[in-house]
Structures are given as structure tokens and as C-alpha cells.
Amino acid sequence: MTRDEVARTVRALKRREAVTKGGRRVVVLLVFLVLLALAYTGYKAFGESIDDAQTGWPVIGMVLPRTNDLTMPPMSDIVAEFAKPPQRNSDKPLAMFILEASLFTLREAALGFVFGVILGLGIAILLLRSTWIERGVTPYLVASQTVPLVAIAPIIVIWGSTSMGWLPFEWTKWMSVSLIATFLTFFPVAMNGIKGLQSADPAAMELMRSYAATRRQTLIRLQLPASVPYLFAAFKIAATAAIVGAIVGEISGGVKGGLGRLILDFASRYTTGPPRLYATVIGAAILGIIAVGMVAAVEHVVLSERREEPLAL
Amino acid sequence: MTDAPRCAVAITDVSKVFNPGRANEVHALDAISLRIDEGAFVSLIGPSGCGKSTLLRLIGALTHPTGGGVRVNDKSADQARLDRDYGMAFQTSGLFKWRSVTENIELPLQLMGWSKAARRERAVEMLELVKLEEFANHYPREMSGGMRQRVAIARALSFRPSLLLMDEPFGALDEMSREHMQTELLEIWKKTGKTIVFVTHSIPEAVFLSQRVIVMSPRPGRITADINVDLGERVFETREAPAFFEKITEVREALRSEEGSA
């Protein structure tokens, strides 16, 4: 065998190992899911056991809330709720509503994610140009994140529907929600992006200088590739932020069709069916996990060439 | 009569002060004058802090002198950098871990706008020169420190610069790979005829490799001795020859006399 063949064989073995590892990860995930359900059920039972005499006790009663079927519906009810139709005039099960709403929200979040990544990277590259720009602009980026979303969401929705007439396509409300998601996603990308762009090895930077490389060449050939691990860390945060942004944006912007609206509906009618809200929130959580999982999968492929551990040759 | 060799590097009365006028002001170099002939192999040696790396970086226009002038191939050092007259190799190989060996060697050519085919052809040639043909598609993480340095040298030479600037390129290697790499480097030097400026803090390394050893002393960095080394063709036995040890002693004395006077 030539060295190349050996290396290829070792890589194939590594890949097989990764598959086994993936399988193990799924098992671990399921075990933790069961543990979580047990913990929920356990606390519910404990909370229900607190009686009036104990409400004055330290910790128990004063800090730990009491529970009943209204605050913590039984796990079995929540699971069963997925199959039940939430509307009297249709037999479409709740799971179907959640799935449709999830896809609607995912579309908003995905577009917001893409905008956020482009905007965040653009800001990071701008900040890289000089420490003065970095020092001057960063506080405002931080400040932008403290603006309450509920305050600006309606503004963005109204602004979207009145000021986007110049676009070659029709601007719909869900696109405004994407802009709200963008508002949350650009920040982690910009912050980690600048850190990643600056993480390029100083020796490599001098090397590029010795090649008389242009600023753009240094950016594309060295700084951007060097920032990729940092960017993926940011993308994972941004993926969840995009979904949170989309849900909050739907709620405060009054946009129908997504998880946000569904959560708002079920929350307003909570007393008539607590398990519905729980089930929907679980749906939102799963959507978040899927979004981060997709980022992680891409990361795994992109960074597989870089893994530091030496091959056993 | 043969023509005198052309001057590759001319350094005239160069000084370098870091952070001038501030509390942490450092006189890194003072009154340095040095001429390096084309095709020569010259080592800069001295204790840490003597400014040997700074001097190398001045030649490579990675930093600029506070006083005096640096001319390379009859141009300003900056112009020489823009004309890509330098190849550089550092102690850390500085390979890009997301690029394969071939892609690393092709990097400078890619920046210079070479076609893919021309790049590939040159990379193959360079891999032959550093004897790593079998590793063309490997990634840096799959290689030893010595192999990575060979790739770094191949990358530095890929665009055929006239000058090779090396800053302790074998400093992180174990003694055996180090001696092996020295022999390889001399072979490459003989084949390509480049001017090589080599920074090291190893006396045997400087003596074995160079035709000239420039001894420097710190605070402020100055040239204290310029020792010609004429050991003829370097072979395995050179390292055991009396003449080799005599030169080592000479360099060591030059380094020590400086210490004594300081």
C-alpha cells in the first residue's frame, strides 16, 4: 500500500467509528429524554404532596412551588395531546398543527439566519479594518441587543408592509418576522466572527505579507478559513436565536401561521387545556434542537479535515 | 577574471528602536552594516534579544528601520517584497491546516494568479525537491514536525524567489531530524543557488550550514564578528572533522568575548 492508500483506509475507519459514535449519541439522548420525563413526573408528585401545613416551611413550601394538574399536567396527557385535534370542527391532530407551524417558523428563522450570518460577517469584516472602528462600533452593537424585541417587532412589521413596495417580489408579513430574527442572529456571528478573523496565526499573517498579498486575499485565503471554527460556534447560538426571534416576532408582530401564534392561542386558553401548550412548547424545543443539529452536521463535514488528532500511521 | 558576485542585501548603518520615547523603549539594533553576496549562505547567530530576528525581518520588510537603509537586489526592501523577491520560513511551519500539502505549496502561486495546471506542475516539482512526493495529498496534522518544515520550505521556494529568509526553521525539531534537515537544506541550496539568510541560536548549525557566520550581541543589537567558514563540501564526516570543531570554537569564543565585555 502507498501512503495515500493507508491514509485513505485510516480515514474510512475513522468514518465508520464516527457512525458508531453517532449511534451511541442517539442512545444517550433517549436515556436523557426518559430521565427528563421521570424528573418531571417525580417533581409533579412531590409538588402535589406538599400540604397546607408545610407551606410555611423553609425551602419546601416557601420556595418550591406546589403543583396540580393545571400547572403540571401528567406526562401521559401531554404525549396523548399530540394525537388529539385541538379544534372542534376538524379532526386534524395537534401534532399536525405543530408540524405545519414549525415549518412556517423554520422558514422565517432560516431566512433570518441567512440574513444574520451575512450581516454579522459583514460587520466582522468591517470591524477588522481598524481597531478604531472596532472600539467605536462594538458598544452600539451591544446596545442594539438590549433593545426589547417586543418594542421593535411591531415597528418592523408595519415598516415592512409599508416600505417594501420597491422590491421586485411581494413583501409578506413573515419576511418581517425574518428581519426580527436577523436582529438576534447577526450579533453572535459578528462578535465571534471578529474574534475568529483575528485568530489567524501571526506567523501566517507575516507570510501573507511576505507574498505581498492584498487585504482581500489575506481575508479570503487566511482569515476567513481561520475563523470557521469560531463561526460554527456562533452559528449554533444564532440558530436558536433565530427561532426564538421568529417566535417572539410572530407573537409581538401579530403574524399568523407559526409556532408563536400557536403558543399565544394556547396560552390564552390555557385553563381549558394545559397539555396543548406544553406539547407546543416541546415542539418548539425540538425545532431548536433540529436547527442546531443541522449546523453541527455541516460543521462536522467542513471541519473534518482539520481535526488535530494525529492519524495512527 | 571573474566578476565579483552581485550584492543581494546591502544594509547600511541600520538602527531600530521599538517604542521610541516611551518607558518601554528598546534599542533592538544599532549601527548595523552588512553586505550579503548573491548566492551566499549566511547565518545570524547570537543570544536571545540580540536582534537577529529583527534584522531578518528588516531585510524582509516585515518591519522598518528607525535609521539607515536596507536595499535588496538594488531596490528598497519594500519594493523587493512587492516584487516577491523573498521566500520565508519560520520556526512554526505556518502551514494552513485546512489545506493539503500540495495546496499549501500552491498558496503563493495562487495569490500570484497562476493557472491551476501551472500551480500543480510547480507543486509536484517542489515536492520532489523536498522529497515528499508521497505526501502530496496529506494534511499538515498527519505529518511530523520535520516534514512540515520541508513543506514550508517548498512553499517558500515555489515561486522561485531569489532570497530565502529563515528564522530558526529547525528550532522546534529534535536533534536527529535537525541534522537531517540541515543536509537537505544544503542540497536544496546547491540545486537552486538561492541566497539564504538563516537565523539560529545553535553554533554547530550555523557553522555546518553557512559560508559566513555573523555573530551578534544584545542591548543594543550589534554585529561583533563576521566569521568566514570554509569547510568545503559538507558531508556526513564534516561534523566530525577537526576544522569543524575549530570553527565552532571560534564562533563560541566570539559569542563569549561579547558576554565578558558586557
Observed structural traits:
heterodimer; A: 313 residues; mainly alpha; MetI-like fold; 2 domains; 10 helices; 74% helix; disordered C terminus; B: 262 residues; alpha/beta; six-stranded mixed beta sheet; four-stranded antiparallel beta sheet; globular
Draw up the topology in text.
The complex is a heterodimer of chains A (313) and B (262).
Chain A: H1 3-49, H2 75-81, H3 94-128, H4 131-146, H5 149-163, H6 173-197, H7 202-210, H8 215-253, H9 259-268, H10 274-303
Chain B: E1 7-18, E2 26-37, E3 41-45, H1 52-59, E4 67-72, E5 75-76, H2 77-82, E6 86-89, H3 101-111, H4 116-129, H5 145-157, E7 163-167, H6 175-192, E8 195-200, H7 203-209, E9 212-217, E10 222-228, H8 242-261
Parallel strand pairs in B: 3-8, 3-9, 6-7, 7-8
Antiparallel strand pairs in B: 1-2, 1-4, 4-5, 9-10
Helix pairs in contact in B: 3-4, 3-5, 4-5, 7-8
Give an account of the 3D structure:
The complex is a heterodimer of chains A (313) and B (262). Chain A is built from ten helices and no strands. With 313 residues, chain A is mainly alpha-helical. Chain A folds into two domains: 3-72; 94-306, MetI-like fold, CATH 1.10.3720.10. Chain B has 262 residues and is of the alpha/beta class. Chain B has a domain at 92-160. Chain B is 37% helix and 25% strand. Chain B has eight helices and ten strands. Chain B has helices at residues 52-59, 77-82, 101-111, 116-129, 145-157, 175-192, 203-209, 242-261, and strands at 7-18, 26-37, 41-45, 67-72, 75-76, 86-89, 163-167, 195-200, 212-217, 222-228. In chain B, the strands form two sheets. In chain B, strands 6-7-8-3-9-10 form a six-stranded mixed sheet, sandwiched between helices. A four-stranded antiparallel sheet of chain B has the order 2-1-4-5. In chain B, a hairpin with a 4-residue loop joins β9 (212-217) and β10. In chain B, α7 (203-209) crosses α8 (242-261). Chain B is globular. The mean pLDDT of chain B is 88. The A-B interface holds A 2-4, 7, 201, 203-204, 206-213, 217, 221-222, 225, 228, 305-311, 313 and B 60, 62, 81-84, 86-88, 90, 92, 94, 96-98, 107-108, 110-112, 134-139, 141-142, 159, 165.
